[in-house]
Amino acid sequence: MMKADSIGLYVHTPLCIKKCNYCDFCSYPESKAEWRDSYINALCAEIDGYKEKNLSVNTVFFGGGTPSLLTPFEFEKICSHITDSFTLDSSIEFTLEANPKTLTKEKLNAYMSMGVNRLSIGLQSIHENELKILGRIHNYSEFLESYTLARDCGIKNINLDLMYGIPAQSLQSFEKTLDTVLALSPEHLSLYGLILEEGTPFFELQASLDIPEEDEECDMYYLAAGKLSSAGYSHYEISNYSKPGYECRHNLKYWHNESYVGIGVSAYSYLDGVRYGNTSEIDEYLSCEREKYIQREESAGLENEAYDYVMLGLRLSEGISLSDYEKRFKNNFLTVERKKLIQKYSELGMIELVGDRLRLTDRGLYISNRILTDLL
Description:
Blueprint: E1 7-13, E2 15-16, E3 28-29, H1 36-48, E4 56-64, H2 72-85, E5 87-98, H3 105-113, E6 118-124, H4 128-134, H5 140-153, E7 158-164, H6 171-184, E8 188-193, H7 201-205, H8 214-230, E9 234-237, E10 240-242, H9 249-255, E11 260-263, E12 268-271, E13 274-278, H10 282-285, H11 290-293, E14 294-299, H12 302-313, E15 320-321, H13 322-329, H14 336-347, E16 351-354, E17 357-360, H15 362-366, H16 368-375
Parallel strand pairs: 1-4, 1-11, 2-3, 4-5, 5-6, 6-7, 7-8
Antiparallel strand pairs: 8-10, 9-10, 12-13, 13-14, 15-17, 16-17
């Protein structure tokens, strides 16, 4: 049985082969990672620090970077510390992010032997020109080899990451990507619109990039929503679609504002009503002195909890329960001003108030940031 107080566990792997042109995640090319062994040891030391808390875990997520660059020995070492420090639920969801060209049969068998039962593969596009623009290291054929290998090894729960709004991408090329991917029938799809993050090559080059116009990117979003819905996928969160029963349980913890622990450089945690984050500086993290590398620590507070409840909950197609909001935070969400805003967005077909639940429609999810800014 799954314990009600079970938490999620995130482990950050900052290694990558090559930094993509759009990526602002905390990651470093492995060719320059002379600290690799030290980092694995620091991860294990941080994991060991939770042993006395007697925490139960029902989701594990190895993210990055590229966790599939971990050797079987490195992965098994980390996992042995996890199993020694946490109680793992028998029905655990154990996700590993992977990039094409980094998977082998030996690796997959080792990962699965340590409990991995869900794979998240970064495809982004099937078109070679779009992949090159993004700075990806693979082509579609190489992705297909990795996908087929994962299936042959027995992985029954696979997510594929796709992007839209890519420079030089058209509605037609995006549709071809969707149709090709749907033919593979993955259990889960994550679709992300390109964001030009400061500090990335794309941000510096944005004036010269042939980025689709806002209207065309909007058309891509609605095209995906329609196609995936027709194919039997539930649009359960702004960027995520799944077959019934294959929603990402780990990510739902974030959106339901549940407890989780983040291990590794730049990882964040929410535990016992406190939010805290590790430094994004690798040298600081490798010091292994936890009181020095924690970036910030703060009590969530009732007001912040209420904000997060709405902000995260309205990312989900299920929306939020107004009675639950009132029970938790001792006030009515539907103030006079909010009622007016909800009425406005309802008339625009962007928000729905059905009985006890307030939720955004597909149209509303696309501009959720604007709506949330108004409501909060």
